[in-house]
Amino acid sequence: MFKLSEIKELIKLVDQTSVQELEIENEGTRLFIRKPGKTEVVNVHAAPIQPTYQQQVVPAATAAPVAQVQAEAAPVAQETNSNLHKIVSPMVGTFYSASSPDASAFVSVGDKVKEKSVVCIIEAMKLMNELEAEVKGEIVEVLVENGQLVEFGQPLFLVKAE
After folding, report:
1. Mind listing the pLDDT tens digit for each residue in 15-60?
2. Sheet with 149-150, edge to edge strand ranges
3. Considering 26, 112, 129, 139, which has the largest number of Cβ atoms within 10 A of its Cβ?
């Protein structure tokens, strides 16, 4: 059985390479990951391997993490104002709004930022990468939740540039 953290790490690794599909069997469980096309949604499926003449059942312990990974990987449709600057994720990783769980967020809605202001951390492959605002302005909206898996190019913040 694959752990959710292992599945997330494999998704990150596939996304950062030219590999289009990955299929792994481990201890009677098969994991299949395929990179999405422009109109395709990521489909992650992990289930015990069963003979083809029997109905295949996904145990509840496997179904919940798979559903969570699918929900996290689904693109988020956001209606944006053309006057707002989008701060986007430069990589696949985990979004953190603060430097530690007990620290306050780098920025919140209404905060003023400068070009070099750190707005969040993206953790990728156990490396913490600080992301800077790139523009001077005011944070209008935070588009992701703390601890959420983010994709390359995914909008994270909307900034009203000055």
Report:
1. 788 778 888 887 777 887 887 764 444 445 555 544 444 444 444 4
2. 127-132, 118-124, 93-96, 149-150
3. 139
